[in-house]
Amino acid sequence: MKRAKKFPFLKIRQQRFTLSFDNASAASEVPSEKQFYNWMWHALKNAYRRADIGLLLLDEEEARAYNRDYRGKDYATNVLSFALNEGEQILPHRFSDGLYGDLVMCPQVVLKEAAEQGKTAEQHFAHLAVHGTLHLMGYDHEEEAEAEIMEALETRLLNQLGYPDPYQESEH
Asked: How many CA within 13 A on the CB side of residue 111?
């Protein structure tokens, strides 16, 4: 019987995507580094040959300081994105060279929003990991047309990961 060739998928994935994960939050219900890695990889794998992303989880006070210092908004928000190449257009061809940036996420805000929206914590963390990664990739939702494109992509990616539409109203 012929032996199947081993496809080195995991090795290739590790060569193409590096996640620097730091949980400086006291929140107890936080997904694992592996979960964040898988969600973010799913969002970027078809667009970049190489990606290096830092993900920092911070408590509300520190997340509020980041939002105030970098966006001029004095409250803790769910996720902030800092792209190394911010402002550059998304390249029209498949597999642009690289994606480099950082995400700052506040678990307390994410958990509060999940409860308010009738979602599981995992669903909301997955959504915001994909959402933040798409921001690093150059997607935005400032204008209605941009928001429709980004939300449709988020919905498709999350459905592929087995999660429901994050923009569908919950019934509670």
From this structure: 14
